[in-house]
Design goal:
The complex is a heterodimer. In chain A, helix 3 (about 50-65) runs antiparallel to helix 4. In chain A, a hairpin with a 2-residue loop joins strand 2 and strand 3. Chain A is of the alpha+beta class. Chain A folds into 2 domains: about 10-40; about 45-125, no CATH class. Helices cover about 55% and strands about 20% of the residues of chain A. Chain A has 4 helices and 5 strands. In chain A, the strands form 2 sheets. In chain A, strands 1-4-5 form a 3-stranded antiparallel beta sheet. In chain A, strands 2-3 form a two-stranded antiparallel sheet. Chain A is rod-shaped. Chain B has one domain (about 40-175). Helix content of chain B is about 35%, strand content about 20%. Chain B has a 4-stranded antiparallel beta sheet. The chains are: A alpha+beta, B alpha+beta. At the A-B interface, helix 1, helix 2, helix 3 and helix 4 of A face helix 1, helix 2, strand 1, strand 3 and strand 4 of B.
């Protein structure tokens, strides 16, 4: 190519620039397959449904036992704590206190703690 | 000393350099095959679908009534007593327009605490696809269920029979 004819070098140079540009566009298209991976992994990692389900299980517990402290309620509480640790890799604890008068209704103050090493959740709710 | 002769030699050199870099990049990148399954996007969608279906099945028709999920765990029939639960779960997952999604499969497990404090997990149903290879991207969705004092018939005999219980229904969900 060199020495044959040195006319039109700008045209050749522009061709080279366009080729490099197309290469970078192809790289971007290639990377687009990865878009959403971090998002999806973040959603998988965040135990939204686990925490919601744990709250419902604890509210079912309060429905049945209130703030009673007897062998049955202790057993169900230990079930939730032990199975959470064994199957969900989550350290869980909860306490139900004696009912308080909240806006004319008697509600149990419930304290919930949840920690699976990645996500920590603490709540105090009147149920 | 500086003139503008021989510019094409320079450009040829630059072009050759770019081509060599490209070749090296392509050779290195062919050693790893990155597929859409590695991005966990379908896993995330499958886990959300399964959680939603379990939440729906755990919602009673009327306030204070027994939910469908608790009913299946207490009075389950079918293979391993959880066959009905598995089939109802899969039918609900497929309840949408278009593709019947017959590639969706599930198996139901149940975790409970024994009298000695250890946690046991038992199969409540067989897998709906016994021919799974172990390469499927499976997700696990769970739901708490509270059972009464009396142990439901057919449950493992080391499940406590003298106290109320909280047990964990676990559904393994995958496409094949």
């Amino acid at each position: 190519m060199a020495c044959m004819n040195e006319e039109g070098q700008w045209i050749v140079l522009m061709g080279l620039l366009v080729a490099v540009g197309i290469f970078f566009l192809a790289l971007i298209i290639n990377q687009s397959a990865l878009v959403g991976q971090t998002t999806a992994e973040g959603v998988l990692e965040f135990p939204k449904n686990d925490i919601r389900d744990l709250r419902e299980a604890i509210f079912d517990y309060v429905d049945r036992f209130g703030n009673a402290n007897n062998p049955s309620s202790q057993a169900v509480r230990q079930d939730i704590i032990a199975i959470s640790l064994e199957r969900k890799n989550a350290v869980v604890d909860f306490d139900v206190e004696s009912p308080q008068n909240i806006s004319g209704r008697l509600l149990y103050p419930v304290t919930i703690h949840y920690n699976n090493g990645v996500t920590k959740y603490d709540e105090r709710v009147y149920y | 000393m500086v003139n503008d002769r021989g510019q094409l030699y320079t450009m040829e050199g630059v072009a050759a350099g770019v081509i060599m870099l490209l070749t090296a990049y392509i050779v290195v990148s062919t050693t790893s095959v990155y597929t859409a399954g590695d991005t966990h996007i379908p896993d995330m969608q499958l886990e959300q679908l399964g959680s939603d279906v379990l939440a729906m099945m755990d919602t009673p028709d009327t306030n204070g009534a027994e939910s469908q999920l608790v009913g299946f765990v207490r009075n389950g029939t079918g293979i391993g007593r959880g066959g009905d639960l598995r089939d109802a779960f899969l039918n609900t997952c497929r309840m949408r327009a278009g593709d019947p999604d017959n590639s969706l499969h599930a198996q139901v497990f149940l975790s409970y605490r024994r009298a000695d404090g250890s946690v046991n997990t038992t199969e409540l149903s067989s897998p709906s696809d016994p021919g799974f290879t172990g390469r499927e991207n499976a997700v696990r969705v769970t739901r708490w269920v509270q059972l009464p004092t009396t142990r439901p018939a057919g449950m493992p005999t080391d499940m406590p029979n003298d106290r109320p219980k909280a047990v964990l229904v676990e559904v393994l969900l995958w496409r094949a």
